[in-house]
Design brief:
With about 325 residues, the protein is an alpha/beta fold. The chain has helices spanning about 15-25, 80-85, 90-110, 145-165, 190-200, 220-230, 250-260, 285-290, 300-315; strands at about 5-10, 30-35, 55-60, 70-75, 110-120, 170-175, 175-180, 205, 210-215, 215, 240, 245-250, 265-270. The strands form 4 sheets. The chain has a 7-stranded parallel β-sheet, sandwiched between helices. A two-stranded parallel sheet has the order 7-10. The chain has a two-stranded parallel sheet with strand order 8-13. The longest helix is centred in the N-terminal third of the chain and has 22 residues, at about 90-110. The protein starts with 5 loop residues before the first strand and ends with a helix.
Length: about 325
C-alpha cells in the first residue's frame, strides 16, 4: 500500500483535476486544491467537498503562497484556445510566473513537482509521431504563443530548478484528452462536436477536416499521472501521455454521429492560424518508464462523454 501523501493540485477544479482528485482520494491521499475558477468549476467538486481528506482554497498561483505538501501536481492554466486566448497575458503569467512560484514552494517542501505540460510545445510538428526529443516548430509571436511558449517557458524553469537545486521535477506532455467534467463551452473539438450534435446544430469543422488528432480518455490520463507520482525518482525527461491512435477530424464527426445516433450536418470554417495539421504521440517512454498504455477506445470514451454531456444539458433545461 502506498504511503499517504498530501497532494497540492493548483487548477484542480478543471476537468482533468476533477477526475484526478477522485483517484487520489480513492487511494486515501490527502488533496488540497488551489483554484481561482478562471475556467475551473466548483461544481466539479461538489460531491467530494465534504470528504475529510479534501480541502478547496480560492487562490491564484501568480501570487506566492506557502503550504505544507509532499507532492504538487500543477494543472493551473486555461488549456483550450478560446480560453487561453481570451487574456493571453494572464495565460503566460500563469504558465511562467505561476510555475516559478510553485517551484519555489516545491523546493521549500522538498516536494515532488509534477507539471502538466502539453503537446502544444511541439507546435505544428515537422516530426511524426512526436517524440519527447523533438524540439518543436512553434510560432513565438502567434495567437497561440501565449500558451505554447508559456508552457515551454514552464518546462525551462522546471528543468533549471532540477539542475540547480535538485528539485524532483516530473514533466508530463498531455495530448488531446476528453471525458466527463469538461465544460460544454470548452472550445476543444470533442466537447464542441458532442454538444453541437446533442443540440441538433451543425458540427463546426475548421479547415477541410483532414487534420489529425489522437484522443485520450481522461481515466487513462489519470492513471498516467498516478504512475508518474509513484515513481521512486524523477525520470529526468518529459514524458508524453496520450493515445497513439490517430483520427482525422472528419472521422471524429462520423464517430460522434454514430454514438449519438443522429444525422450529422457540417459547417466548414477557415482554419485558425498556427493550428497543427497532425498531432500524435510517441508513447515509448511512457510504456517503458511508467508501464503505461491507454486502454479506452475512442468509441467507448465518446459514449461515456456523450452520457455526461446529455446529463449536463438536461439539467440546464430544468
Amino acid at each position: 500500500m502506498n504511503v499517504q501523501k498530501t497532494v497540492l493540485i493548483p487548477g484542480g477544479a478543471g476537468f482533468i483535476g476533477a477526475n484526478l482528485i477522485r483517484k487520489l482520494l480513492e487511494e486515501n491521499h490527502k488533496v488540497i486544491v488551489w483554484d481561482n475558477f478562471y475556467t475551473g468549476q466548483e461544481s466539479n467538486l461538489t460531491e467530494i467537498i465534504s470528504n475529510g481528506n479534501f480541502k478547496l482554497e480560492n487562490h491564484d498561483i501568480r501570487e506566492y503562497k506557502e503550504i505544507e505538501c509532499d507532492v504538487i501536481i500543477n494543472l493551473a492554466c486555461p488549456a483550450s484556445p478560446p480560453h487561453y486566448q481570451k487574456d493571453p497575458i494572464y495565460t503566460w503569467e500563469t504558465s511562467a510566473l505561476g510555475v516559478l512560484n510553485l517551484l519555489k514552494l516545491a523546493k521549500k517542501n522538498n516536494a515532488i513537482f509534477i507539471h502538466a505540460s502539453t503537446s502544444e510545445v511541439y507546435g505544428d510538428p515537422l516530426e511524426h509521431p512526436q517524440k519527447e526529443t523533438y524540439w518543436g516548430n512553434v510560432n513565438p509571436i502567434g495567437i497561440r504563443s501565449c500558451y505554447d511558449e508559456g508552457k515551454r517557458a514552464a518546462e525551462t524553469l522546471a528543468t533549471d530548478y532540477m539542475r540547480t537545486y535538485g528539485t524532483d521535477v516530473r514533466l508530463i506532455r498531455i495530448f488531446n484528452t476528453y471525458g466527463p467534467f469538461m465544460l460544454p463551452d470548452d472550445g476543444r473539438v470533442v466537447s464542441n462536436f458532442i454538444v453541437q450534435a446533442l443540440q441538433n446544430k451543425p458540427l463546426t469543422i475548421y479547415g477541410d477536416g483532414a487534420q489529425t488528432r489522437s484522443f485520450c480518455f481522461v481515466s487513462d490520463l489519470v492513471e498516467g499521472f498516478y504512475a508518474m507520482m509513484n515513481l521512486k525518482t524523477s525520470p529526468g525527461v518529459p514524458i508524453n501521455l496520450g493515445n497513439p491512435d490517430e483520427f482525422t477530424i472528419s472521422e471524429l464527426t462520423t464517430l460522434v454521429g454514430e454514438t449519438i445516433q443522429k444525422e450529422i450536418k457540417l459547417d466548414y470554417k477557415e482554419l485558425p492560424a498556427d493550428d497543427p495539421t497532425r498531432r500524435c504521440p510517441d508513447i515509448s517512454q511512457a510504456q517503458s518508464i511508467l508501464q503505461w498504455t491507454p486502454g479506452v477506445k475512442l468509441k467507448d470514451g465518446l459514449a461515456l462523454t456523450v452520457e455526461y454531456f446529455s446529463n449536463v444539458l438536461a439539467k440546464r433545461q430544468v
